[in-house]
Specification:
Transposase_IS66_central, 118 residues, mainly alpha
């Protein structure tokens, strides 16, 4: 498994994955100062999805779960969040491509969201 660098597409037997920390940063950069709680803002909603996934990971780490147990819990607890998150990004994609400002950085990533986030 590798990160989202597109150059890896040329390699065989490599699975690319998206980094939620990078995705969250793009969303966070698009939130205007003072607008952190404006839930109608697509960027704020994107940050909220990422934060929910991070809370799960933090809890697994704090509870000292070994890798195998974390993997099982990810499938059980996080996968139901990832599916709607991907759907949300795909639904919002036209907004990202036409908005002014930082949110446009998400658009190229959203083109590969289904391949890199599952």
């Amino acid at each position: 498994m590798v990160d989202g660098f597109q150059g890896y597409d040329k390699l065989k037997n490599v699975k690319r994955c998206a980094c939620y920390a990078h995705i969250r940063r793009y969303f966070l950069d698009a939130v205007t100062q003072g607008g952190e709680k404006e839930l109608s803002n697509p960027a704020v909603q994107g940050v909220a999805y990422c934060d929910k996934l991070f809370r799960y990971e933090r809890r697994y780490k704090e509870q000292g779960h070994p890798y195998e147990q974390r993997q099982k819990r990810r499938l059980k607890e996080e996968k139901p969040v990832v599916g709607p998150f991907i759907k949300y990004i795909l639904e919002q994609r036209p907004i990202y491509k036409t908005s002014d400002g930082e949110i446009e950085k998400i658009a190229p990533w959203s083109d590969n969201v289904q391949k890199t986030c599952r």
